């Protein structure tokens, strides 16, 4: 504007410049320290990402977390189906075949008290018919979940946990989940089963159906 | 005394089985069969989340968008370019990325890690938090202008902005501080991500969500037709951080590309009431200094008061915490057998976690609430005192200029200024000033800027970028341009 | 750039038409989507009442083919409707967004045509209005402060006291204090320790012939609970699936003074819970503090009555879910009624205020169902409640419920109460073990010895004078050294024991299932001092008062004493 600034203006200018430099330095230092802490925490024993093979950690700073639910804590209250911000919830039922007993009478498949063990609609527990029952060999039947039909209500999971091996379980489907910064299902979950996990290990169960936690 | 029967009735076995279910979900009651037909076990799908490069891409795009916004707002001074960038960011960061994780929410993750040594925060989240602040320190709130999807969605519906009286603006301006403080406390106690929980527009970006979330978003947008960007100005907690940074900014956008000629045309330019008018202190310097000193002295008093009241302020907020809700419920159940168990209390009892563990947790938590409450109270005291100190005296101001802290750098005022960019160093080839599309219509209308008022020379109304499209026939004569006071300009020429 | 005014006008008109159409479109779409939204969010597809009703009908009539056809059709329809509405919502959202974009664009175009630069107000720019702003900031802060204060004050105000509902007005006919301390206040006497101080019971009796039997009175309804004695009255509970009752007999002549049915209690189940015949509805023994008597039944009802039989309070604490029926007896400590309530739902120990029945404290325990009765012992730092359980035995402060120690050592269906001698607690159960747990003054507990032979499963052990006596269900009585765990002696009788042994006058009185009471010397060598007959089977533990013994047989209550 003008070459001759009033004294107060230049004083203010100087003060602002100093504070700005300090703020920028503080911000940079903070970011650096936080990145360092991420790397340090990773190499600290026991605090590595859940299920991380190395356990000691890779020493890399963490990635943005994703949500996952712990099937060991899940009580199958049915809120996953209704509380997701998505109309068709990101929580779906998964089936660990390695853990499945291939029962003829599956408590995850049949409505309790069903007289006839057939695939007829009136006998099925699943509200959307998302479980397919296929004969393998006597007396074993295979149960396969059609992901697109599952709404994550957990009715089958409850049946399987109550009377079977617990091979059906609810999980956050990581391709569908939007990873809201605050998960609405986590907020509603009565069992506090949701947690933030690393995207490098986004599931809390192993391939054989055993728990990582 | 009870007599146990030797032969377990079938019922007992069923009950035991059910019990087993609740106590050991991991039980394998039926062994995996050995198939003879050569059946191969299908594998359980493990769909993977988005790849690491997608995170990096987002940060990269944020950086590029911020740089472009800076260039468009400070160098190019083009509302059009800013609008284009804003629409892109709305589409990408809003509708495509579905709003998470955004800088407006990321400060919570960073604050959580800052207050808890056992937590780390991903560099992508850290940068999403730090980059807009760094830019604000250097160039003002360019993030708000066109990068933030929350700002953008409100900006496109600014249709009939009404002026808000200054006193109301100042009163409502306290809300973001309250929101920021409360949200920070709830992060400190690991209770909630309040800003994300009540993010009004994220449901719109996802085109799905709870009814109340969508309704809030829709009503804020409707309100935004008349009160421009209500969330940004009267709620956004991240905006508070950005305004602090912007208060120290190195460069900031200006209404005029050169010198203010006091034409007063920009008085109504800003839909956010962010343009400061010229002012001269009416009272003696002594009086205002005295008042300022009084308010400054009041600050420690207010902080002290806040610290004293803090734990009480935090007390009602404890209700938002899930663990405190749980223990309250458990205690109520213990008080009276008539109280029904909730799913939470039932799940807790089934989890096998000792009540004592929960009690210890809650005890620690309450302590944290009290401590956090003191900080919160102190913060409120400081904010109040500081706000009053800022209002203590009229600062001498000669020109119309955007308020350093509240200006959202949207660039709407550019078109209102009749001045055109200086020729010196403006164009590398010493060519004529930039065409009209960039600096608003007036750049083109003015041959000699001081000759005949900005619009007198305007041969044709330009419809593109400014309000002057409204001057087709009648208003060219009787438009605002006659009002352009030459005298004011002269008096201020330096 | 060089639009003619007509063109501008046309453009404005076009924009207005577009905006109108777009807004109508958006409004219609919004209404449609809202209805779909609520329909899809309200219920899971197959939870419609019609479908559920149909399914139930099918279970009732599995052969009805027409039902099946209907259900299948309905099910298909419901599922299609669900997924169609989901798709409709997604498509609708995209359409709505497009509509809104068009509308906003058109509106912005219209705005650019109508916007006017307003005349600057005459008389120079407005001075920033600092004074109103100042006041606004202060007033807003005050309003916020007032709001906060309001919330805080509401928070600080004590919540309205929920008085537990009593079915009858709490008319209390209490006798003026001080009252006489009860002679035999609970299962296994004072503190539930199984030691009868200052008594000299007879060494022989015969209920059938009437020898040394002062009186014999029929008990109206069956029950396995044991008698308690207070102010010359004997209290018992009995019950069947129809009614559960409290009985009061005169200790002088056995007259039934009053009976009080446990009916009309809020929250009590309408039908009696299922119990097994060997536990019954009234297995738990009552307790008294000398002013009132307290009873608990298999339905989860807990009652307090005056000694005259007037109800003071009664609450239902939920039917205890265990496979046999509730059996843990009550215990009174000062003004608290202590209840072990370990069932399938939650293991818990409750302390109820004896005057109102309100819960004074509650401890949740991670245990499986259990039928044992706690004991109250006195330690150097005050009284302690010792509770056996599956799988943990633990000690609690009876005033606050604070846990003092726990020891994980039990298993199976625990019905046996702990025993106590000189700083050591003894817990035992069949198929688990006998564990001697030393409770140290520093609050820790450790096992000093263990045993695996002749373990009881109903009868509770008793410890006295450095010896631990146990009677098992197969007829073995054994005596152990409390310090070393050394077996002093074991003797096999021909009938098993369900009643618990009681130490009285330096002797062990233990009644077998046939009602034969073995009287042994409470010493480290086996000496049989006498045998007494009841004339009917017995599974309850007798009450010892002065020179008299009250024994409950299968049908009668006997008062034993030398005439």
Model description:
The complex is a heterotrimer of chains A (213), B (494) and C (563). The longest helix of chain A has 37 residues, at 7-43. Helices cover 26% and strands 15% of the residues of chain A. Chain A has 213 residues and is α+β, with helices and mostly antiparallel strands. In chain A, 47% of the residues are buried. Chain A folds into two domains: 1-62; 66-197, no CATH class. A two-stranded antiparallel sheet of chain A has the order 1-6. Chain B is 56% helix and 1% strand. The N and C termini of chain B lie far apart (104 Å). In chain B, helix 9 packs across helix 14. Mean pLDDT of chain B is 79; it is low at 1-26 and 425-494. Chain B is mainly alpha-helical and 494 residues long. Chain B has a two-stranded antiparallel ribbon with strand order 1-2. Chain C folds into four domains: 5-111; 188-224 and 494-563, no CATH class; 227-326, Thrombin, subunit H (Beta Barrel); 336-344 and 368-414 and 417-455, Thrombin, subunit H. Chain C has four helices and 33 strands. In chain C, the strands form eight sheets. Chain C has a five-stranded mixed β-sheet, with no helix packed on it. Chain C has a four-stranded antiparallel β-sheet with strand order 2-33-32-31, with no helix packed on it. Residues 158-178 of chain C have low confidence and may be disordered. Chains in contact: A-B, A-C, B-C.
